[in-house]
Amino acid sequence: MAYLGDKKDVEFIRVTSDKALDFMSLYNVLPSPSNYKIWYDYASEENMSLNQTINDMIRKRKSFSAIVCKNLYERFFENDQQQNAVATAGESIQSELVKIAKTVSDINKGSEKYSSTINSSLLGIDKLPGGTELKSIISVLLSETNDVMNSHNSAQLKLKESAKTVQKLQTTLESVRQESLTDVLTNIGNRKAFEENLKRNTVDSLNDNTDLCMIIGDIDHFKIFNDTWGHHVGDQVLKAVAHSIKTRVGDVGTTARYGGEEFVILLPHINLEKAQKIAEKIRLSIAERSMKRKSTGESIGKITCSFGVAKYRQGEHQTDFLERADSALYMSKSKGRNQVTLEDDASHKVIKIA
After folding, report:
1. 126-174 residue pLDDT tens
2. Helix, strand, coil: what percent of the chain each, to 5?
3. What CA–CA distance (Å, rounded) separates 242 from 185?
4. Which of 34, 82, 160, 312, CA to CA, is 20 to 30 A from 27?
5. pLDDT value at position 35?
């Protein structure tokens, strides 16, 4: 929250900290550093998945024992911290290896110049008084210099190999991180990816004073369809809808499966009117698509989706932004589905199918 300004930042931390301690006292939570992290994030309301999980536990009157809190910390924080620590360590190690390799290279260059200079001097040294003996001594020194150079070259090669190994490990770590942010079924972002993008995009929108819009889409009557045709066909539909959304959004935004049959799209630098048009293109592309059962080729009819569109209001909480988009989606559902509805539209203007 540093982007709110120093005074507001200090006040936010103080208020949030007080709330966290109050929650911990209310639910008899041991005030350990990891538990404080959990409840500070809960009080800040910035981690929507954490808040939803804790709120569900509170509704079910579950106790926050030491084991429960440990599981919460491991689930929401420990993995990210480990990945960040490994990535940071890897970057530091690679940077140091590069520095050492450069130092060795510089030494080699100096040694090569030194060796070349001595070799040139040896050409005429025989003509000097005592030159033969002197040449013998210098030749020994030159041989030792060459041995050092060879040793440095070997060390440099090993350092380069080590740097490559560290780089491969960093690449592998990033791949693992991307997998953790991807929905396995639809191959688009998952809820965690959405929440990370939402946090980053709202900060960017506030700092740069730029537009940010959100589209929430939901497959109409999906439960009935799933019960009729089975989960395998339901998965096929989810994949098809995700593909249509991702294709129409392209590079202008990020897409994610928010949960079940619900999808969410974030559109930075896009105003409400343009976001509405994008939602409508997505809606049409899905409604016009003929779905067939993959295994038999049997027609399973048309699939439709309803959409809600909202624009970020500078400085508002992410949850409020999400709730306004969700309310617009609910309006589309209540008005007959297969529609796009804008947030807070006083006239409830709806784009209907032809």
Report:
1. 554 544 555 555 555 556 666 665 665 665 666 566 666 656 666 666 6
2. 65, 10, 20
3. 10
4. 82
5. 87
CB 232 within 8 A of CB 286: no
Q: What is the pTM of this model?
A: 0.60
As beta bridge partners, residue 350 has 341
Q: What are phi and psi of 251, to 5 degrees?
A: -90, 0
Residues 322, 316: Cα–Cα separation, whole Å = 10
Tell me which DSSP letter residue 306 carries: E
Q: Give Dmax (Cα) for the chain.
A: 109
Residue 4 DSSP SS3: helix
Identify residue 88 by its one-letter amino acid code.
T
Three-state SS at 302: strand
Amino acid occupying residue 181:
L
Q: Report which of residues 151 and 48 the model is more confident about.
A: 48
Size of the chain, expressed as the number of residues it contains: 354
SS3 255: strand
- Tokens representing 297? 């080729």
Reported CATH class of domain 191-351 = alpha beta
The two beta strands, 254-259 and 262-268, are antiparallel
**Structural domain spans, the chain:** 2-64, 80-180, 191-351
Q: Which helix (H) or strand (E) holds 92?
A: helix 79-122
Coil, strand or helix: which one is 268?
strand
Residue 348 makes CB contacts below 8 A (sequence gap 6+) with: 331, 335, 341
Pair of tokens at residue 339: 């529609």
